[in-house]
Write a structure and sequence with these properties.
The protein has 232 residues and is of the alpha/beta class. The chain has one domain: TIM Barrel. Helices cover 30% and strands 20% of the residues. It has an eight-stranded mixed sheet with strand order 1-2-3-4-5-6-7-8.
Length: 232
C-alpha cells in the first residue's frame, strides 16, 4: 500500500463529514486536467506508511467522522480492501473516489460493506470520446458495470464530471441520459493548477456562473445535476 498523500482534515472531500483524505499511488488513466499527476505512477514517493497512518487515525476518534480514499485510482492497489477494513475497524466511515474502470474490485468492496459512500467519475460521454479526456483507450462497458454496482448497492453515491476545455455543454448533454432521475451528478470547474496539461491550462474554460447556467439547462434531462461548491 503506497500512501503518497495525506490531508489530515477536509470539509470538502466527504459531504457533510469532517474527514481525512488519503491518496494512493498509481492510475490507469492520464487525464490532462488532473492536478494529482505526480502521484499517477505506482512508484510515487510514499508520504506515510500504512501503519503510521492507522496509528495516527486511531488518535482522531471523536475528531474525524470518516476517511476519503482517493488517488490516483485506489482500486489499483492490491491491498485496498485490507486498508478499508482497518479504517472501518477504527470506527470511521469510508468514502471511495474511483474512475469506475475496475468494477471487479468495486463490487466486492460494496458487498462486504467496506465503503459508505462512492464518488465515481464520468469524464465524458460513454463512447469513443472518453479516450480524448482519459488520455488512454477506455472500454466504457466496465464503467457501465460500475454504475450498475452502485445502483444495486443501496448506499450513497454520486457521479462527477470536470467541465473544461475538453468537456463542454454538448458533451454534458450526451452524458445526461446515462443518469437516473434521482442520481446526484456534480459538475466540477476545471482549474488550471500546476501540473495540468499546458495546452489545457492555456485554453478558455467556463467559470462558476457558466457552470450554474449549464446545470440549470441540464436539469430537465438530469434532475440531480449540481455544481460543486455552488449553493443550490
Amino acid at each position: 500500500m503506497r500512501i503518497v498523500g495525506l490531508q489530515r482534515v477536509s470539509l470538502l472531500d466527504y459531504t457533510d463529514k469532517i474527514a481525512a483524505t488519503v491518496f494512493l499511488a498509481g492510475c490507469n488513466l492520464n487525464c490532462g486536467y488532473c492536478h494529482n499527476r505526480w502521484m499517477l505512477e505506482a512508484g510515487a514517493p510514499v508520504a506515510i506508511s500504512e501503519d503510521a497512518f492507522l496509528e495516527w487515525l486511531a488518535t482522531r476518534r471523536g475528531l474525524l467522522d470518516g476517511v476519503c480514499v482517493s488517488g490516483g485510482e485506489p482500486t489499483l492497489s492490491p491491498d485496498l480492501a485490507d486498508l478499508l477494513r482497518a479504517i472501518k475497524d477504527l470506527g470511521f466511515d469510508v468514502k471511495l473516489d474511483t474512475n469506475g474502470t475496475r468494477p471487479e474490485v468495486l463490487g466486492p468492496l460494496l458487498d462486504e460493506g467496506l465503503v459508505d459512500m462512492v464518488a465515481m467519475d464520468l469524464k465524458a460521454p460513454l463512447d469513443e470520446r472518453y479516450a480524448e479526456v482519459a488520455g488512454r483507450p477506455v472500454d466504457v462497458e466496465p464503467l457501465r458495470c460500475s454504475m450498475a454496482h452502485l445502483r444495486r448497492w443501496g448506499g450513497a453515491y454520486e457521479f462527477r464530471t470536470t467541465v473544461g476545455p475538453q468537456v463542454g455543454e454538448d458533451w454534458l448533454q450526451a452524458i445526461a441520459p446515462e443518469l437516473l432521475p434521482g442520481e446526484v451528478w456534480y459538475l466540477q470547474m476545471f482549474r488550471a493548477s500546476e501540473g495540468v496539461d499546458p495546452d489545457l491550462a492555456a485554453a478558455e474554460a467556463p467559470d462558476e456562473d457558466a457552470l450554474a447556467a449549464m446545470a440549470a439547462r441540464l436539469a430537465e434531462m438530469a434532475p440531480g445535476v449540481r455544481v460543486r461548491g455552488v449553493a443550490g
